Description:
This protein is an alpha+beta fold. It is 45% helix and 22% strand. The protein has helices at 12-41, 130-162, 169-195, and strands spanning 58-64, 67-73, 80-94, 97-111. Helix 2 runs antiparallel to helix 3. The mean pLDDT is 78.
Amino acid sequence: xxxxxxxxxxxxxxTIGLALLGLVGVSHIGxxxxxxxxxxxxxxxxxxxxxxxGPYSSYRIKAGKDGYEIEFRANDPKILESERSLxxxxxxxGLFGGGSERRSEYRRDQYTQEGYRNxxxxxxxxxxxxxxxxCIVADAGARSQGAMAGSALAAGVAVPALAGxxxxxxxxxxxxxxxxxxxxxxxxSEVGSAFNDC
Length: 198
């Protein structure tokens, strides 16, 4: 009779455990490599700022550990200055004796880039002459007076006649009043422009 000697079988649990341990070790090494490489890429870089620039623009950038601060001016200097001086000292000697003239003038102006002079609180009328401004003011007054006269005329003549219409008389009277006001405004503008040479 032959006796069989038992052979040692390797347990599948050991194999599975070693495989899992190897898998966890490799994944940890991969994770450490990813974190180290990611740390190198996430180093704080200053932002790229595209600031528009022109002949009159200026900017100042302050960078610190708390962040960035940018001060930008598109039109710097905002106000330009001009200084002029005149000093005249004349002495005339003529037939009947001498005369003298002493004149000293100093002028300091502030103006914008477009060339408008600072009038110490005065308003700028861009591209309009004094006649244009006068015509605009006259037209506004004439329109106002014409609208008042037209609405008064419509209220005295047309509204009482239209108010007697059943059901819609009040509405027709309101329309007549608005129509009289608009027509009076346009007629007043025409009359005002004729009188003011505009």
